[in-house]
Design brief:
Elements: H1 2-16, H2 18-30, H3 35-57, E1 68-71, H4 73-82, E2 86-89, H5 97-107, E3 113-117, H6 123-132, E4 138-142, H7 145-156, E5 160-163, E6 174-179, E7 182-187, H8 189-197, E8 200-208, E9 215-220, H9 233-252, H10 274-280
Parallel strand pairs: 1-9, 2-5, 2-8, 3-4, 3-5
Antiparallel strand pairs: 6-7, 8-9
């Protein structure tokens, strides 16, 4: 029922919002999607939105259980055994909210996950985000200077972080690098954290299965972020960010109809207070 209602909701938003409709068409076309894939992405975006209340309000003592199928979970086992911390990167693909809860249920007791999120502007939504997402083995960190400090401490304890690297960061917290053939302002936080702490990094995404059968969670080990000979710090950081974008593109094209193409990926970043920007830099 949730997915049926969500599919209708996706088409309703598509029909009523010219700006959203234009972005979705432009972004999907830039990535080479067919008309059928683009139409399916409209329904899938609505299903993703409709899943959120159920996932957030579901009692913590009720595990997802058989609704989740893991592919490549041994890669997470290996990374956690190394004890240097782990970065899990996922694009806005499939059901990314289920990733954190599934990780917490399987590994959270021994190695909790801290997930980065952007606080909502509405106070009641922000309060809901902070309370509904916190579960045993799962913590959240806002996309602020305090949140970055929280994440660094977690990595140094050998814990795990979850990031959406295709989320547009505030001005001063990213670089302009290609994403599906056009420059997009891309966060450098993921690369900075990995380079500063030596943590392992993996790509994780949750595929929504047809027929309300749940989700299949895929874990992939990307290329290592090695410094090129003679590259300066800024050059190396930009190269690492480009590599992360390439990994995001590869993962997205494995199930392009489940990516959130209506997201304003190519927008000019919003400004942030000068003190926060300088301190983060």
């Amino acid at each position: 029922m949730i997915h049926q209602v969500g599919g209708l909701l996706g088409w309703l938003v598509y029909a009523l919002s010219p700006a959203y409709r234009g972005r979705l068409r432009a972004n999907a076309t830039r990535a080479g999607l067919s008309s059928a894939q683009r139409r399916e992405s409209v329904s899938q975006a609505g299903r993703m939105l409709a899943e959120l209340p159920w996932l957030w309000l579901r009692p913590a003592e009720e595990p997802l259980g058989q609704l989740v199928q893991w592919r490549g979970a041994e890669l997470i086992d290996e990374a956690l055994a190394a004890g240097k911390g782990l970065l899990l990167l996922s694009p806005h693909l499939g059901c990314f909210e289920v990733l954190a809860q599934s990780y917490a249920e399987r590994w959270g007791r021994g190695c909790p996950l801290t997930a980065l999120y952007r606080p909502a502007r509405q106070g009641w939504v922000r309060s809901w985000q902070e309370t509904a997402r916190n579960r045993p083995g799962l913590h959240t960190a806002p996309a602020t200077l305090a949140g970055v400090r929280q994440m660094i401490r977690a990595l140094r304890r050998g814990e795990t972080l979850g990031l959406l690297p295709d989320q547009v960061p505030p001005d001063g917290m990213g670089v302009w690098v290609p994403f599906f053939g056009a420059d997009a302002y891309t966060m450098t936080l993921a690369a900075r954290l990995q380079l500063q702490t030596g943590a392992a990094w993996l790509v994780l995404w949750g595929e929504r299965l047809p027929g309300a059968l749940g989700w299949r969670l895929h874990v992939h080990k990307p290329e290592s972020l090695q410094r090129a000979p003679g590259a300066g710090d800024d050059e190396h950081l930009a190269a690492c960010t480009r590599a992360i974008n390439r990994e995001m593109e590869r993962v997205i094209l494995s199930a392009p109809q489940q990516y959130l193409w209506g997201y304003n990926r190519y927008k000019q970043p919003r400004s942030r207070p000068r003190a926060d920007s300088e301190a983060a830099a």
